[in-house]
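> forwarded from #structure-qc
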């Protein structure tokens, strides 16, 4: 496993999905930055963006609720791991520690990352994914110029408009 970080959050106009870019936490100096792009749903992307923008809400959102449940059960997120890809679907795990008991929970990568950034837990990626699924960050971003932030803010505004109408 390689320790990675959330490098960027983009919007894919074609699929209308968010893309998280996971890259090495400490890339080699002078080398191109390699990232693994993972397409995620808009609501999960929105949850990640809200945390990155330090937005808070009067009631807990889904990933905040998950964080609260884990804390109230006296557990801690040790780390999350993106473990494999099968049939174009990435798999992840959330590794918890409760007292001396280790608990591993199957997860989607988007939920694992959304939780990890809320609890400041490390994110790991299987080495073979970095070897076979990584791309050059700058080239990838050039292909996906429009940032997710604009689309997500548009989505949030339309949700607010719907709430005001009801």
């Amino acid at each position: 496993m390689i320790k990675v970080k959330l490098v960027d959050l983009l919007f894919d106009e074609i699929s209308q999905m968010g893309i998280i870019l996971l890259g090495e936490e400490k890339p080699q100096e002078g080398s191109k930055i390699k990232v693994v792009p993972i397409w995620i749903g808009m609501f999960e992307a929105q949850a990640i963006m809200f945390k990155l923008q330090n937005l808070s809400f009067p009631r807990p959102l889904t990933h905040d609720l998950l964080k609260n449940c884990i804390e109230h059960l006296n557990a801690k997120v040790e780390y999350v791991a993106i473990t494999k890809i099968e049939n174009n679907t990435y798999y992840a795990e959330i590794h918890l520690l409760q007292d001396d008991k280790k608990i591993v929970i199957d997860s989607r990568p988007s939920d694992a990352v959304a939780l990890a950034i809320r609890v400041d837990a490390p994110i790991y990626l299987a080495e073979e994914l970095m070897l076979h699924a990584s791309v050059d960050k700058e080239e990838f971003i050039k292909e996906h110029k429009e940032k997710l932030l604009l689309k997500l803010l548009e989505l949030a505004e339309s949700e607010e408009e719907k709430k005001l109408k009801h």
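QC bot note: The mean pLDDT is 86. The longest helix spans residues 148-165.
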